[in-house]
């Protein structure tokens, strides 16, 4: 069906006729404020609100409280520091990147920077003016946007920023004998084609003769566009070979290249890291006699936190010691600039792209057992009910008593300690788990959102091949470390607040009313109820999760509640953390791999008088929060897409195999499922269903056949056949076991 475009491309007025307004100079009510923010263009802060409603200094305190209340109850969502939005509406104009074409041949684009939730909106670009070249996949333009529906915009080019993408990452294929281009005259015959790894890019590229960098068939490459002199596929030149498609070790580099993740340190930063030396004990609290232990995954190489606990009265005194990264990474140094640019470490099955050079991340900043290391520490008293008091921060020198794994600790707790744990002081493990039980009681009392989402672990053999994709088991030892870290993070935020210093908070706003209403409708069809939006707490969502625990609905309900959440971010505004039910929360415990934690360390050192300062200011934290929120989401996208490519690679060898799956969601064009064996999202397209008239009911979330009794609904278990797996894009297509095999081309 041909898409009907609106007759005009004009943007709606910021405040349409009929929108209630407050009289000038008076504080608006909640509905008036919501209407203004919803209909205004871009992100709105207190300055724009004061200008719109004519507010003076006497109104600012009341306005600040109103914005805070509306953020806490989910009416507004944070949109960067001191900015708010009602919905994920795009501004009137912004930079977009062309990803492909629609069925009419018109370009489709998406925002280059997308800070909203879920998938980025689709922008349907108007054809270029007569005499101007058509927009090519990967090209970036400044476009004027007009909203034409939920998640859909119409775009008109205002200014072209690039004639083509700087780089295209994809799979190079030499021409086969059956390819129509193979019969072209020799002077026009290309060396092969390039299929982009970006699943949103619909168009292929062509690699002319002599521009293939001697790449063999099935090679993952990076190419740069070449000028185009006529019609046909856009030409490109291969500039780097990443490795053969069949080598699992090249998979992570696809995301690194596509998302522009920095992976080579500047020489000056490497030199500073190599020149680092051990800290001196002078002017530090000596903790070397305290049997602090690190507890990490078996494959971890950087150990940035250590824990200790001892009984005190009815409770415990706990110590959390964190690597003193701030001692080595000074503000505005080459190391600092490199760390801020990266924002965080990125973890793949075959490698880590670290935030800091290995001389620090795996060396002087890693709390290795038996070696003296500088640290920042916090001592806290934990009461029997989990209440935390007497938190005291300091700069110390420590010597880890043992490097433990989660599995070791869990086995010891279950009665099977190994020799390493047996060599620790008597009662240490009992004290750690005792303190954890107290902290867990406080967590249960305040009511937190504890999602149980299956994680998958990709295991590679010594040759880089995928050995297995297995579930990542969550143990009580994981929960122990998590609660200790949360307690330390809360203490860090409260310390800075108590000394009236700016803090870079880890914030998590409540779900928006629109998302909660959508969630409510879906849960209603499953017999599950939620309280009204204004009174909803994290504990209410967790109550729903407990209702379905250990049932067939558990996986689906966890996924639905996850999708309804706002993404957490960093901001100097104390919005609070909805999921943890905490008013003040910062990140302090992982400065080796998160720049936010390093900024918190610097502020704490000034707060406790161990550094002259100044501490990072509000404006600096605001700018940093926006930047590292973006790098964090980039890392999460890279890790997620890489796991999808690993899973698709593993499934390529299993095309035709029948597996168990469950339905995650339904649409008019197919059924989205999750394969139980790998946790992989896969599509069962409408064309793969039995021939019938199918009706998709959004309200009841069902897909029903007209002539039979067949019905599909979320959470339903299915037996499916792997029909196609595309490793380069990480996509998997399914069929029903009884359907005849498809004749789709499976080379990719």
Shape: globular
Give the domain tally. 6
Instruction: State the secondary-structure class.
Output: alpha+beta
Number of strands: 33
Number of helices: 17
- Please report the distance between the alpha carbons of the first and last residues: 29 Å
User: In what order do the strands lie side by side in the largest sheet?
Assistant: 3-4-5-7-6
Low-confidence sequence ranges: 1-24, 744-748
Report the average pLDDT across residues: 86
What is the alpha-carbon Rg in Å?
28 Å
- Which percent band covers the strand fraction? 25-35%
Task: Describe the main β-sheet briefly.
Answer: 5 strands, mixed, barrel
**What percent of the residues sit in helical stretches (DSSP H or I)?**
25-40%
What are the SSEs and their pairings?
Blueprint: H1 30-39, H2 46-53, H3 60-72, E1 77-78, E2 84-85, E3 93-101, E4 107-111, E5 122-125, E6 140-149, E7 152-160, E8 168-174, E9 192-196, E10 205-207, E11 219-225, E12 234-244, H4 251-259, H5 267-274, E13 285-286, E14 293-296, E15 305-312, E16 315-323, H6 325-328, H7 334-342, E17 346-347, E18 352-353, H8 358-364, E19 372-382, E20 388-399, E21 402-405, H9 406-413, H10 419-422, H11 428-446, E22 456-460, E23 466-471, H12 476-498, E24 505-507, H13 513-524, H14 538-548, H15 554-564, E25 569-571, H16 595-607, H17 618-652, E26 658-667, E27 670-675, E28 681-685, E29 694-697, E30 702-705, E31 711-712, E32 717-726, E33 731-735
Parallel strand pairs: 5-7, 10-12, 13-20, 14-21
Antiparallel strand pairs: 1-2, 3-4, 3-6, 4-5, 6-7, 8-9, 8-11, 9-10, 11-12, 15-16, 16-19, 17-18, 19-20, 22-23, 24-25, 26-27, 26-32, 27-28, 29-30, 30-31, 32-33
Helix pairs in contact: 4-17, 5-7, 11-12, 12-16, 13-15, 14-15
């Amino acid at each position: 069906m041909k898409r009907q475009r609106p007759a005009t491309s004009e943007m709606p007025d910021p405040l349409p006729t009929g929108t209630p307004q407050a009289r000038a100079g008076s504080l608006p009510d909640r509905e008036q404020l919501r209407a203004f923010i919803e209909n205004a263009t871009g992100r709105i802060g207190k300055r724009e609100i004061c200008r719109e409603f004519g507010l003076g200094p006497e109104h600012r305190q009341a306005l600040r409280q109103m914005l805070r209340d509306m953020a806490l109850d989910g009416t507004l969502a944070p949109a960067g520091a001191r900015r708010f939005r009602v919905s994920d509406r795009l501004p009137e104009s912004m930079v977009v990147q062309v990803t492909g074409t629609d069925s009419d041949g018109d370009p489709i684009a998406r925002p280059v920077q997308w800070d909203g939730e879920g998938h980025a909106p689709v922008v349907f670009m108007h054809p270029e003016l007569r005499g101007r070249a058509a927009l090519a996949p990967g090209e970036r333009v400044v476009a004027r946007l007009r909203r034409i529906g939920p998640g859909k915009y119409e775009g008109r080019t205002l200014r072209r920023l690039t004639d083509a993408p700087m780089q295209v990452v994809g799979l190079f294929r030499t021409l086969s004998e059956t390819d129509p281009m193979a019969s072209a005259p020799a002077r026009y015959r290309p060396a092969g084609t390039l299929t982009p790894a970006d699943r949103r890019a619909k168009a292929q590229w062509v690699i002319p003769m002599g521009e293939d960098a001697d790449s063999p068939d099935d090679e993952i490459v990076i190419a740069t566009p070449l000028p185009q002199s006529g019609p046909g596929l856009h030409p490109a030149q291969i500039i780097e070979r990443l490795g053969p498609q069949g080598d699992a070790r090249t998979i992570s580099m696809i995301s690194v290249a596509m998302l522009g993740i920095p992976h080579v340190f500047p020489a000056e930063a490497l030199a500073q890291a190599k020149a680092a030396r051990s800290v001196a004990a002078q002017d530090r609290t000596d903790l070397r006699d305290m049997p602090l232990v690190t507890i990490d995954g078996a494959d971890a190489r950087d150990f940035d936190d250590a824990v200790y606990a001892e009984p005190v009265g009815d409770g415990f005194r706990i110590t959390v010691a964190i690597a003193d990264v701030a001692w080595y990474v000074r503000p505005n140094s080459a190391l600092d600039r490199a760390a801020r640019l990266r924002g965080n470490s990125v973890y793949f099955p075959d490698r880590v792209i670290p935030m800091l050079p290995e001389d620090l991340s795996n060396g002087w900043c890693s709390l290795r057992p038996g070696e003296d290391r500088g640290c920042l520490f916090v001592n806290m008293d934990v009461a029997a009910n989990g209440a935390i008091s007497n938190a005291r921060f300091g700069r110390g020198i420590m010597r880890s008593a043992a490097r433990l794994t989660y599995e070791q600790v869990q086995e010891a707790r279950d009665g099977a300690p190994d020799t390493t744990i047996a060599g620790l002081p008597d009662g240490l493990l009992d004290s750690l788990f005792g303190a954890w039980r107290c902290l867990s009681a406080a967590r249960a009392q305040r009511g937190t959102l504890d999602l149980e989402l299956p994680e998958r672990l990709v295991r590679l053999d010594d040759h880089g091949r995928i050995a297995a994709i297995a579930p990542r088991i969550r143990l009580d030892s994981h929960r122990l470390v998590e609660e200790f870290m949360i307690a330390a993070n809360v203490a860090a935020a409260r310390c800075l607040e108590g000394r009236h210093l700016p803090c870079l908070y880890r914030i998590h706003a409540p779900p928006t009313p629109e998302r909660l209403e959508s969630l409510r409708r879906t849960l209603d069809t499953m017999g599950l109820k939620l309280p009204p939006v204004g009174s909803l707490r994290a504990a209410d969502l967790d109550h729903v999760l407990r209702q379905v625990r250990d049932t067939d609905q558990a996986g689906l309900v966890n996924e639905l509640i996850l999708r309804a959440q706002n993404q957490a971010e960093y901001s100097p505004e104390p919005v609070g953390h909805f999921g943890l039910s905490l008013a003040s929360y910062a990140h302090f415990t992982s400065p080796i791999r998160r720049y936010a934690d390093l900024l918190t360390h610097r502020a704490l050192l000034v707060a406790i008088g161990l550094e002259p300062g100044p501490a990072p200011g509000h404006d600096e934290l605001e700018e940093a929060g926006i930047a590292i929120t973006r790098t964090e989401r980039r890392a999460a996208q890279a890790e997620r897409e890489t796991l999808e490519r690993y899973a698709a690679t593993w499934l390529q060898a299993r095309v035709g195999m029948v597996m168990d799956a469950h339905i995650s969601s339904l649409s008019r064009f197919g059924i989205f499922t999750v394969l139980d064996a790998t946790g992989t999202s896969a599509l069962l397209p409408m064309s793969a269903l039995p021939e019938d008239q199918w009706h998709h009911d959004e309200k009841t979330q069902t897909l029903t056949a007209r002539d039979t009794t067949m019905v599909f609904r979320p959470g339903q278990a299915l037996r499916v056949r792997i029909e196609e797996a595309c490793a380069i894009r990480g996509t998997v297509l399914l069929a029903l076991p009884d359907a005849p095999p498809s004749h789709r081309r499976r080379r990719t």
